[in-house]
């Protein structure tokens, strides 16, 4: 007696189990799950199954299928992630995998070339991980997408880092203003001082410090498009005599000393093994009693290994990106000449920031797709929604750490209690 060939919905049911609040609809006409489910996933064609069968992980396979259009999600991606996060997926053993292949056919194991939106180590510039030319290629992949696209997603502030919300009702723009101002206050900026802002992006911190604190500012970014946009904004706001944005690597800055350094969202790109060299470089650029504010995404514990993975984030979003926990970061800061004075976890603020960016992308979806293509727009929708949920669930955090380069007598020259 011949065995009944299972539908795609049958196979999905095996992995998902009963009671999952998701409806799956497949191209073979089969479906699984409640019709009134808050999330509906459509398996558009065989390519989706091929990505799932041949990718290094389920996460990467699903991402490739969605970005390519082989998998569709009805509704907001964030809502889908919340629902999927509540599903207890059943592990599939070897025998079951063989049965699935028999049902679907070995043709789903065909090799799939990388998507146009995907970049891996082999497609980066030749060189060691975090060598200057490779870092420049990685930054170009993520940041040189389209300044117009970023204007739609980030809003008028063009700040692509965690905002600080004074209240739960504050707007994204108000929160980005507060973030820049908080950094200035923590650094204790005074008129006439020199500030170096490394990884300056489109220059939001540069312009804020120059305009509101009367300091002379140098900003540095590896992204040419960011530098060009920022230089134009500096000129338009009449700040060219006190603010400069350079296209280059912070490692090439030699015109210290500076009174303060802000590093907002750069540490994620430099490589954990390079933390010592990073803090040594910044220490050398500061005058005695100078302050450093390091603002970066971190892991929730020091027990997690640094991932040099081949997953979605590394291949589609931040090539060669690495994060570690607060403990390892503060240790590197201490061991390279800085005295830690304050640390603050802002992870809830980053979840709120990402919600604002997701809402902006939804509002400008049609224009965004026309500007950068459907695949790139989907990469952004996917990564921002997933990141928002990760901050909410404490999978990742955002810390600001303030360090001081004490003088030869041990004087840090800071107030006795927090002043910001």
TrEMBL record:
**Gene3D superfamilies reported in the protein's UniProt record:** Vaccinia Virus protein VP39
Question: Which SUPFAM superfamilies does the entry link to?
Answer: S-adenosyl-L-methionine-dependent methyltransferases
- GO molecular function of the protein, one example? methyltransferase activity
- Domain of life assignment: Bacteria
Q: Which SMART domains match?
A: PKS_MT (SM00828)
InterPro entries recorded for this chain? CFA/CMAS (IPR050723), CMAS (IPR003333), MeTfrase_dom (IPR020803), SAM-dependent_MTases_sf (IPR029063)
Q: Give GO terms for biological process.
A: methylation
Write the record's keywords in alphabetical order, separated by commas.
Answer: Lipid metabolism, Methyltransferase, S-adenosyl-L-methionine, Transferase
Residue stretches making up the Polyketide synthase-like methyltransferase domain: 149-403
Similarity comment text for this entry: Belongs to the CFA/CMAS family.
The name this protein goes by in its record: Class I SAM-dependent methyltransferase
What is the organism field in this record?
Answer: Fodinicola feengrottensis
């Amino acid at each position: 007696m011949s065995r009944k060939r299972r539908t795609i919905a049958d196979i999905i049911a095996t992995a998902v189990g009963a009671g999952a609040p998701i409806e799956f609809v497949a191209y073979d006409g089969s479906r699984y799950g409640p019709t009134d489910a808050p999330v509906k996933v459509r398996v558009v064609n065989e390519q989706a199954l091929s990505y799932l069968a041949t990718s290094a992980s389920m996460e990467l396979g699903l991402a490739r299928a969605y970005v390519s259009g082989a998998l569709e999600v009805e509704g907001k991606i964030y809502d889908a992630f919340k629902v999927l996060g509540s599903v207890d997926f059943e592990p599939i053993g070897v025998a079951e995998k063989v049965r699935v292949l028999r049902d679907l056919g070995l043709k789903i194991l065909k090799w799939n070339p990388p998507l146009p939106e995907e970049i891996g180590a082999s497609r980066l510039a030749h060189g060691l991980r975090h060598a200057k030319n490779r870092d420049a290629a990685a930054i170009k992949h993520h940041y040189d997408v389209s300044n117009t696209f970023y204007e739609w997603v980030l809003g008028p502030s063009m700040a692509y880092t965690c905002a600080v919300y004074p209240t739960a009702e504050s707007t994204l723009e108000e929160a980005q203003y507060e973030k820049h101002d908080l950094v200035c206050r923590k650094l204790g900026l005074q008129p006439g001082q020199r500030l170096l802002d490394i990884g300056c992006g489109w220059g939001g911190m540069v312009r804020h410090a120059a305009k509101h604190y009367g300091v002379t500012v140098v900003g540095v970014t590896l992204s040419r498009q960011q530098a060009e946009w920022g230089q134009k904004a500096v000129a338009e706001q009449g700040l060219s005599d006190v603010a400069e944005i350079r296209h280059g690597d912070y490692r090439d800055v030699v015109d210290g000393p500076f009174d303060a350094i802000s590093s907002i969202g750069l540490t994620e790109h430099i490589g954990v093994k390079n933390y010592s060299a990073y803090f040594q470089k910044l220490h050398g650029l500061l005058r005695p009693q100078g302050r450093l504010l390091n603002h970066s995404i971190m892991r929730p514990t020091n027990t997690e290994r640094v991932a040099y993975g081949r997953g979605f984030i590394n291949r589609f979003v931040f090539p060669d990106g690495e994060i570690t926990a607060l403990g390892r970061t503060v240790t590197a800061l201490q061991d390279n000449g800085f005295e830690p004075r304050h640390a603050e976890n802002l992870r809830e603020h980053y979840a709120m920031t990402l919600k604002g960016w997701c809402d902006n992308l939804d509002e400008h979806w049609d224009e965004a797709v026309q500007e950068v293509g459907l695949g790139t727009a989907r990469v952004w929708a996917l990564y921002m929604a997933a990141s928002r949920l990760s901050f909410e669930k404490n999978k990742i955090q955002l810390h600001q750490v303030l360090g001081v380069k004490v003088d030869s007598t041990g004087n840090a020259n800071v107030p006795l209690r927090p002043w910001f």
